[in-house]
Design a protein that fits this description.
Distance between the termini: 56 Å
Structural class: mainly alpha
Radius of gyration: 20 Å
Order of helices and strands: HHHHH
Strand content: under 5%
Length: 160
């Protein structure tokens, strides 16, 4: 459900819901650059405090599908005829992992999600000390949580 969506992401000051809406809006922006649908070149999603979670993910999914479709239509033999795929790939693959750190910090339940963990743990933050420090801090928290949840092994008693 919507548990935790009103929690604050400390680094941005946005709620988790606002962060998810922002990601959906950004994905719509990438889709609009690659495949204009509404003619404005601007995403259709704005911050919406009360936007239902299902709608956020549906909008994100539709925009992501448009981005992928544009990538699939890329014709290497006719570069001038292609949408600006390469200019879009960089921001796209950098944006979500950066917000994955926000989600991991704000939502303890997300810390077991392999996709979110992969985004955060394996993304190249370009050596940016602030991002690397945030990643180190969340990795430390996750390790501590896993250790605390790990079943304790009973030691075998030595027989004399």
């Amino acid at each position: 459900g919507d548990v935790g969506l009103e929690r604050s992401c400390e680094a941005t000051g946005w709620t988790v819901r606002q962060t998810l809406v922002h990601l959906a809006a950004s994905m719509e922006g990438y889709a609009e650059v690659l495949e204009p649908a509404n003619g404005s070149g601007q995403p259709a999603v704005e911050f919406a405090e009360a936007m239902p979670t299902v709608e956020i993910f549906e909008r994100y999914d539709r925009a992501r599908d448009r981005v992928i479709a544009a990538f699939e239509r890329f014709d290497a033999t006719r570069p001038a005829a292609n949408p600006p795929v390469f200019a879009t790939i960089g921001p796209w693959v950098d944006h979500i992992p950066r917000h994955s750190i926000d989600l991991l910090e704000a939502l303890p339940g997300v810390r077991i999600d392999s996709l979110v963990l992969t985004w955060a743990m394996f993304h190249d933050f370009g050596g940016d000390p602030a991002w690397l420090a945030r990643r180190r801090a969340i990795v430390k928290v996750i390790r501590e949580e896993y250790e605390a949840a790990r079943p304790k092994r009973k030691r075998k008693k030595k027989e004399d």
